[in-house]
Amino acid sequence: MFNLTTFRELLTAALWTGLLAGLLLTAVQQIQVIPTLLQAEVYEEQATANADNSHEQHEWQPENGWERTFFTAVANIALGVGFALLIGAVMCLRGRTGSWRMGLLWGLAGYTTFFVAPSLGLPPEVPGTTAAELTDRQSWWLITVLDTGFGLSLLAFAKTKTYRFFGAVLLAAPHLISAPQPEVHSSAAPAELAQSFITAAAIANAVFWLALGGLMGQFYQKKS
């Protein structure tokens, strides 16, 4: 039964999990993602300098170096705590059978739901890449996440073939609709750099989600 003590345990586990997983993600990004991102930003700046609107002022953004790393770490930790709470809540609803091995499975499910499935239609993009309208992409992303989450749960826990079939349909549905795309696709960065960014982002997110699941499973184990 869910009570105040259970909530405190869940919150404590999520805070520790989010902190450690967020710091790990930041470290992996410094090795895998940031170097590629910095290269892409050079191409973006060159394209912007040649454009007619190069005199326009840009919004504030952290400077490269410790400032950018600090704000990235803060964002990653906050993201980690939020997703850890989500994993913990699902574990609690499923009976709180916590272990790091079981947590890895939940982390894999989260990785599939929040990164792999949306990336099939909207892969990570480097700066300077044209994209469809933000609201259209956000709507498709949300639909894909919801369909994938429900679809995976039906495939994993449904007791009848009918429900499992419906789960498979949910997994495929967003990709049958297809993600919103710009009328003309272009990028200031070379295609090889864009592909490297996609690979780096996939690796970083895999490490992040597996760490989230494993740590949450370890910290939020069922008490005897």
Written account of the structure:
- 74% of the residues lie in helices and 0% in strands.
- It has 224 residues and is an all-alpha fold.
- The protein has 7 helices and no strands.
- Helix 1 (4-32) packs antiparallel against helix 7, helix 3 (66-93) crosses helix 7 and helix 4 (100-121) packs across helix 5 (134-157).
Task: Spell out the blueprint of helices and strands.
Layout: H1 4-32, H2 34-50, H3 66-93, H4 100-121, H5 134-157, H6 161-177, H7 191-219
Strand content: under 5%
The major beta sheet can be summarized as: none
The residue-averaged pLDDT reads 88
**CA(first)-CA(last) distance:** 14 Å
Shape: globular
- Rg, nearest Å: 20 Å
- Helix/strand/pairing class, anyone? mainly alpha
Low-confidence stretches: none
Order of helices and strands: HHHHHHH
- How many H/I helices? 7
Quaternary arrangement of the chains shown? single chain
Number of beta strands? 0
Proportion of helical residues: over 70%
Structure summary:
The chain is an all-alpha fold. The chain has helices at residues 4-32, 34-50, 66-93, 100-121, 134-157, 161-177, 191-219. The protein starts with a helix and ends in a 5-residue tail after the last helix.
Supply database-style keywords.
224 residues, mainly alpha
